[in-house]
Amino acid sequence: MILVTGGAGYIGSNLALRLLELGHNIVIFDNLSTGHIEIINKLKNLDLKGKIVDFIKGDLKNLQEIESALSKYKFEAIFHFAAFSIVSESAKNPSIYWENNFLGTKNLLDAMKKFNINKIVFSSTAATYGEPNYVPIDENHPQRPINAYGNTKLALEFLMDDYSKAYGIRSARLRYFNVIGADKFQRTGEWHETETHLVPNILKSLNTKGKTFNIFGNTYNTKDGTCVRDYIVMDDLINAHIKALEYLNNGGKTDFFNLGTKEGNSVLEVIQTAEEVTGQKISYEIKEKREGDPAILIADNKKAKEILNWQPEKTLKEGIESAYNWEKANFYK
Ligand SMILES: NC(=O)c1ccc[n+]([C@@H]2O[C@H](COP(=O)([O-])OP(=O)(O)OC[C@H]3O[C@@H](n4cnc5c(N)ncnc54)[C@H](O)[C@@H]3O)[C@@H](O)[C@H]2O)c1
Fold it and tell me: Is residue 200 part of a domain?
């Protein structure tokens, strides 16, 4: 049995779906603060090899709730997605970020210790690197986050090192770059009430009459002046999680891996690809640069390739296609 925290959210539900396809029985633990019960119900009703044995509406901030969940089943491993992840919100209100992300994860690790669960795959982030000294960014790049969100995730990486050394809880920390895309059959996809990500916001602008998409800055030192990011497609991201579990199952030590493609695409390139995919013109306006947006973020993914035996395969276009199909099926009027 596998526990998925945050399994009602964007990435957690995609991982849950894959586990079910692979024949795993799983329990989802989520407080539905940003996740959606509709997704859980949809996944529950699919006829797949594995089953959602239980959905526990619980909050990681409450130690008793997570302890009670871990006492009910014998879990072999945990995938831990539950967190708050809006950078601007974290800057305005760091208190709730530290409480939710840090305290929540500390409770989870303490409960794992109590119930002898010793493997965790954790959603870390490229935001732990902050403004890069060089690109592509490898795992040895200094970690100096520039916002509270990144700080909480970096602190959790330290916490996981300490719990690994002292209590033998082994972690695979996956530092995602920019995640895009949805399940190819639209069973789950991106659904954030406050959407801050580029691709869904471009697609949403097409569904709102007269809406213009904002580009923040076109004078960066990049190929066309707009920011360059490394877009990793959901299918590839999920493959890496499955490989990370295999790695831990095979006795792999606590470690951390960048998940990205080593390719960079500018905002204008993403818009152009979205135009190809949708067959529609995307109207945009250039706005002022935002504080704290590095010009280029690209992952060096050699470590994940070598140690996890993982290889990203999907293109930006495929990622946008799956996101568009999901968006059309669920949100277009
Ligand atoms: N989406 C990205 O591009 C991206 C990039 C880097 C890292 N990440 C990380 O990946 C993880 C998943 O991101 P997402 O985009 O799927 O977010 P999401 O908001 O869609 O999902 C998070 C889920 O966790 C649940 N949750 C939050 N706090 C909880 C708590 N205290 N107790 C129980 N459940 C709780 C929410 O209800 C939600 O279902 C997060 O940890 C995020 O920091 C995401």
Answer: no
194 lies in some domain: no
Which pLDDT belongs to residue 209?
80
pLDDT (mean) for 80-88: 97
User: How many domains does one find in the chain?
Assistant: 1
CA–centroid distance, 142 to ligand 1, in Å, is 24
The verdict on residue 219 lying in a domain is no
Q: Is 149 a catalytic residue?
A: yes
For residues 29-52, average pLDDT: 98
Q: Which helix (H) or strand (E) holds 216?
A: strand 213-216
Q: Strand ranges (DSSP E) for 85-191? A: 119-125, 170-176, 178-180
Tell if the pTM clears 0.85, that is, is over it.
yes
Residue 244 sits in which domain range? Answer: 2-180+231-260
CATH number, residue 82 = 3.40.50.720
Residues 95-124: pLDDT tens digits? 999 999 999 999 999 999 999 999 999 999
Ligand 1: which residues within 6 Å by Cβ?
5-6, 8-12, 30-35, 59-61, 81-83, 85, 100, 104, 123, 125, 176, 178-179, 192
Are 98 and 153 in contact by the 8 Å Cβ rule? The answer is no
Mutation test of ligand 1: which of 5, 11, 149, 154 has the most ligand atoms closer than 8 Å to its C-beta? Answer: 11
